[in-house]
UniProtKB/TrEMBL annotation:
Gene3D superfamilies: Transcription elongation factor, GreA/GreB, C-terminal domain (3.10.50.30). One of its GO terms (molecular function) is RNA polymerase binding. Residues 16-55 form the Regulator of nucleoside diphosphate kinase N-terminal domain. InterPro entries: GreA/GreB_C_sf (IPR036953), Rnk_N (IPR029462), Tscrpt_elong_fac_GreA/B_C (IPR001437), Tscrpt_elong_fac_GreA/B_fam (IPR023459). This is Nucleoside diphosphate kinase regulator.
Amino acid sequence: MRNFDAGTRREQPALPPIKIAEAESRRLSALANSTMDLFPRVAQFLARELERATVTEENDLQGVIRMGSKVTYRDDETGARREIVLVYPHEANIELNRISILTPVGAALIGLSAGQRIEFETPDKRTRGLTVLAVHE
């Protein structure tokens, strides 16, 4: 299934279903709104992801990427595997593989589960795909 993007006149891949807890959704929505002026593209992307997410109970999020999750993913273009922890901006540290939710990769990962794939736009306007290999509790 594909979505049609009227702005670019090209087909967009269908986005995978995602889940998020209500409290986390509220906090991330506030973060996206408060950073819209500083980081408009990624804040808008995060806001769109949160809008399409299914809000669910905490106990229904086993194996779902949440804030603080340790995640192994594969870059679909290069095949490179990476293990990161998804964190809030003030906790980010690239040397410790702590990736902010306010990065394209971070915003793309939230709510996904192992085996899911997503495509997103990088700051240089390239399309990048990644596949979640594991979510470590």
